[in-house]
Every structure is written in C-alpha cells, then in structure tokens.
Design brief:
This protein has about 260 residues and is mainly α. It has helices spanning about 1-15, 15-30, 40-60, 70-90, 95-100, 100-105, 110-120, 120-140, 150-175, 175-190, 205-210, 215-225, 230-255, 260-264.
C-alpha cells in the first residue's frame, strides 16, 4: 500500500519546492527571447495556422456538416492535447541528464525532476484551452459540458508523469532514446486523429489506432470540447493505461535512481 501512496506523499511533502522550481523553469524557457512569455500563446496558434493552411486551403478537406471555421476548431481541439504531449516528451525525456547537478542535491528529490518538466509544459495547454473556449463562446457552441475537460487535463498530467519517469530514467543509460524522440513525435503527429475524425479511418486500419494512447486522449478532448456522445469505452481504456503507466514509471525510476550519479 505504501508504494501506491508514495508518489502522492512526495508531491504533497515537496509541493512548495516543486511549485517554485516549476515557475522558475517556465520563466527560464523564455528568458532572453524577444517575445518572452507571449510564446505560450503564439506557439499553439502557429501550429493551428499551419494545419489550417494545409488541410483547409491546400487539401481543401470538407465535412458536410462543418464550415471551414468549425473544421479549424475541430483541428484545434485535437491539436491542444497533442502539442502538450510532444512538448512534455521533448522536455521530459532528457530532464534527468539536463539536471544532473540536482541528482546529488539531497534537498531536491530526484523523482521530482521529471515531474517539474511535465508541469512546466502545462501553461501552453491551459492557454490553448482558454483560446478555444473563447472561440466556442464567440460562435455560440460553448456548453457546461466543456468543464469535463478539467479531469481530462488531470488524467493527461498523470499519464505524462508515468511516461516521463520511465523514459527519462531509461535515457540515462540508453541516450539514443533522447535522439529518437523528434522522430517519434513526427510519427505520432501523422497517425493521431488531429485533422481527421475516427469516422474517416478505414475499418482495416482501426485496430492499429487502438495501440496509440493519443487516439483515446484526443477523442476524449474533442468530444468534451465540441460536443457529442461521451466515449466511455475510450475513457476507461485511457484511465487504465494512465494508472498502469504512472506506477510502472515510478517503479522503474525509483529502482534506477541510485545509479544515475554514475552515469550523469
């Protein structure tokens, strides 16, 4: 039982230290740039503009029931969780190696290094959701159903905790993992349902979609933000994946952390 409560005890015990270091990391990421913290807003909008140009202006993708602007909102609803995931992946996998000085610092638990990497990517997600909600309010499509996105955010955070614990620990010993992450991110961008809906996937390819955790996450975000029948099956599957990955990642990280100082 102690193992299952240990991560949460760690979060609570060092909550103030975690908050200060996370805020410091967020400010440090944009220090020295011309636009500063404005990148938190510009970054997702640039990706949205790129998708809109490619799929609306070039490929001229059309849905019978959707206007072009509604289709852009559909893209944005899928792009928001994906961008947060890839940003977390890029920052988190190398977080232990990048913060090697903290490994020997007894005041800062090593387990929190990946955690603060995940949390430092959170502002972009929240600002993007705020922008999308503003667009939904403007078009009259917002509803109380949108508040269900809050537990989805929490679910995504814990999913990323487990994944980054696992990958950042393994990356200390297998540094090729950090090098292949950009390729994996590009691959996930192509196979995740960002600019298309599940209905557009050929039946023969659907079994392959089930192996992609982002398939479930993006489907949940899209339904909660844009309306529709809540996909309970996808919710329970992603919840199970999140719980399993959270504790697997914590177990692997805790088991290997004693060896970090020899490798970093």
């Amino acid at each position: 039982m102690k193992f299952f409560t240990e991560p949460f005890s760690l979060f609570w015990r060092y909550r103030y230290l975690l908050r200060r270091t996370t805020v410091s990391d967020i400010k440090g990421r944009y220090a020295g740039t011309c636009m500063g913290m404005a990148w938190l807003t510009v970054y997702p909008l640039l990706f949205l503009a790129l998708y809109a140009v490619v799929y609306v202006a070039i490929f001229k993708v059309r849905f019978n029931e959707l206007h072009s602007f509604d289709y852009v909102l559909l893209i944005f609803a899928g792009l928001i969780p994906f961008l947060n995931f890839t940003d977390t992946l890029g920052q988190g996998v190398t977080s232990v190696i990048a913060n090697s000085t903290l490994i020997k610092n007894t005041l800062f638990p090593v387990e929190l290094i990946p955690v603060k990497a995940v949390l430092s990517s959170l502002p972009t997600l929240l600002i993007s959701l705020f922008l999308l909600e503003g667009a939904l309010l403007y078009t009259g499509q917002a509803s109380m159903f949108n508040f269900l996105v809050l537990p989805l955010i929490l679910l995504q955070i814990f999913f990323c905790f487990g994944l980054i614990w696992l990958l950042s620990a393994l990356n200390v010993f297998i540094k090729d993992i950090g090098q292949i992450i950009p390729v994996i991110s590009l691959f996930l961008m192509l196979i995740s349902p960002i600019a298309y809906t599940v209905d557009m996937v050929p039946p023969d390819l659907m079994p392959f979609m089930y192996f992609n955790p982002l398939f479930y996450l993006i489907s949940l975000y899209r339904v909660v933000l844009l309306g529709g029948v809540f996909p309970w099956q996808e919710f329970w599957i992603f919840l199970g994946i999140t719980i399993g990955l959270f504790y697997l990642g914590f177990f692997v990280f805790k088991s290997l952390k004693g060896l970090f100082s020899d490798e970093c």
